[in-house]
Write a structure and sequence with these properties.
Distance between the termini: 40 Å
Helix content: 10-25%
Number of helices: 3
Oligomer: single chain
CATH topology: Nuclear Transport Factor 2, Chain: A
CATH architecture: Roll
Radius of gyration: 16 Å
Order of helices and strands: HHEEHEEEE
Shape: globular
Strand order of the largest sheet: 2-1-6-5-4-3
Number of strands: 6
Length: about 160
């Protein structure tokens, strides 16, 4: 018996995925976090407002799945410098909106606002901005194909960002 997914169910599934991602980053559990991404997934943090692409401009991050795996392995390695100080963070996500939806595939683009407070090396740093997630349908759930993080102060001098925001 097949069921028809209502619009409210789709929105709820998407919200839960974004909240789950934030929760995994807060722990930080990069092993489970990376599983939220497709095999060809990317993570992009531009350096300028309204940056059009990550390939012809410098970015704070532009990681494909391979680079995400490298960062994840380094972050959890027992002798990594990042282990000298614990990283703690708190993500708050709001104003989640589906901006595009392919009715045939269920793939969609979702925007949301975020605030993230990072505590590392006895210093608390606030980050805020807008997320854009490109999601692909994966059975009854979604996976992240592309995540763009637009910081409101992307062109400012930033502290070291030692974990994904």
């Amino acid at each position: 018996m097949s069921t028809v997914v209502t619009s409210n169910e789709v929105i709820r599934d998407i919200e839960q995925l974004l909240y789950q991602e934030a929760s995994l980053l807060d722990r930080p559990d990069l092993d489970r976090w990376i599983e939220l991404y497709t095999e060809d997934g990317t993570y992009w943090m531009p350096t300028i407002e309204d940056q059009e692409d990550p390939l012809n401009h410098i970015s704070l991050f532009y990681d494909d799945r391979v680079m995400m795996e490298v960062r994840r392995r380094y972050f959890v390695h027992p002798r990594a410098a990042s282990k000298d100080y614990k990283v703690r963070s708190s993500h708050i996500i709001s104003n989640i909106q589906i901006t595009e939806m392919d009715d045939k595939t269920g793939n969609c683009t979702v925007t949301s606002n975020f605030h993230c407070f990072m505590y590392y090396r006895d210093k608390q740093t606030p980050y805020a901005g807008r997320y854009t997630h490109e999601l692909v349908r994966d059975g009854d759930s979604y996976k992240i194909h592309h995540k763009r993080v637009d910081l409101i102060n992307c062109d400012a001098v930033l502290n070291t960002i030692n974990i994904y925001i």
